[in-house]
């Protein structure tokens, strides 16, 4: 029997701007990464998403990003390790206040967008982020790109880590994600996306854009909640996991 956590980035609306279908997606995932107000989210959205996750029994995590609302946190911005430490501590603290106020317990942290991708290959940045998480709460699980510098840094500082893989993204031969700026960055065919992630779970391999298999560990699978077909894909992937004998359960 194979086990996998299914996570989704949520709470990414802001003010009057609504992104995603958080309430429905939460019926299919086991971990929610909730935006903390820098790349998306606001106090009302954060609280509402926390309440929904608690109601549906979904594990709650902080989703800290770069201070870039206009770019949705997906643009690489020059940031020092010290700044990374400070913004991660700040954002974890903000979301954790809402979680505690509503009687819940935060379980994990997953950086967002450009911060996540930069940390995947930058040792100093990843160590600053891991240290920030550990200093806030050493019991938190750090989610990072499978095999990345972020996962290594989490282990080094003493955190439990989760190797994350992506259902709807293509991979490079070094195990990194294909940049979103490239046309082939996203897997738009649901059948291909499911087949890719099932293989990662069962065989520990993913086919890179260069045509070579890459060894990969899958502890948690990310599905994006802001896509036009996100809800249908969430239903589909749960159904296919059941057929493949893959049990979906929270990692943290």
From TrEMBL:
Transmembrane segments: none
Molecular functions per Gene Ontology: 5-oxoprolinase (ATP-hydrolyzing) activity
Gene3D superfamilies for this protein: Glycoside hydrolase/deacetylase
Keyword Cytoplasm: no
Catalysed reactions, as listed in the record: 5-oxo-L-proline + ATP + 2 H2O = L-glutamate + ADP + phosphate + H(+)
Class of enzymatic activity (EC top level): hydrolase
One Pfam entry name: LamB_YcsF
Keyword RNA-binding: no
EC numbers, comma separated: 3.5.2.9
InterPro entries from the UniProt entry: Glyco_hydro/deAcase_b/a-brl, LamB/YcsF/PxpA-like
Keyword vocabulary terms for this entry: ATP-binding, Hydrolase, Nucleotide-binding
Family: Belongs to the LamB/PxpA family.
Subunit composition and interactions: Forms a complex composed of PxpA, PxpB and PxpC.
Function, in words: Catalyzes the cleavage of 5-oxoproline to form L-glutamate coupled to the hydrolysis of ATP to ADP and inorganic phosphate.
Name of the protein described by the UniProt record: 5-oxoprolinase subunit A
Native organism: Bacillus songklensis
